[in-house]
Amino acid sequence: MSNLPHVIDVTADTFETEVLQKSLQTPVLVDFWATWCGPCKSLTPVLEKLAGEYGGAFVLAKVDVDQQQQIAAAFQIRSVPTVFLLVGGQPVDAFQGALPEGQLRQFLQQHGVEPLAEAEAPAETAEATLDPHAEVARLRDAVQAEPDKDELKLDLALALLRTGAADEAVQLLDALPANLATDDRAVRARARLGFAALLHDAPAPAALEQALAADPDDHQARHLLAVHHLVGGDASAGLEHLLELLRRDRAYGEGLAKRSLIDAFRVVEDEDLVGQYRRRMASLLF
Is residue 37 annotated as a catalytic residue, yes or no? Predict the structure, then answer.
């Protein structure tokens, strides 16, 4: 087994957990290779190098096609090396052959996979313990002192969102440059705002519950009730309704239940709860 950071060797027994479920949270690059394959010997070390350099922005899952013929057959592998990118539990792109490092970076960039700045994570954890109103005041002063520092504007948008000042937060998020607009924190903020926007002119929870009692297949009512729970802080109830919507009709709203669950995983802070519902979602899908 590989002991490199963010690199795993996958078997048929671990594929669902280590690839399908993991890709619901983090992109997974699946490298189909063989010991006798010459191009594999040049491609795999570059992929391993990038997996370490990107610091967890993606996971490299290595599949020996001779040892794991079941997985290779499922992906209809005809030649090696073949590399698939899985996001949200689904293959989104693939390539064959030993691409040079520059083209590999472009391939990842096309799908929004960029190296992570590992030093940012502790700052966000510490930030969550601050009083949001005091943090808004502090960040307003910081932005005024350094108006060209866009990172401060993102911090201010997140603080505003925690105080309920959604409109001002949206204006700041909309004005961010492209590199910060795709920052993980900005993506989570957009997900929160997206849920809140769905509730404009939506029926009250009691009315939605009555609608569901009358017709358990009222998918719109179930989706809106789930959003009410998520925005109101009852993450478990919200996730349960979304999972039930997925179970009843995974095609509803062009995959609305799956998309909503993935967005909910971004905004729910209880990691154990998120992990539980990720596993349940994966069992329904696969």
Answer: yes
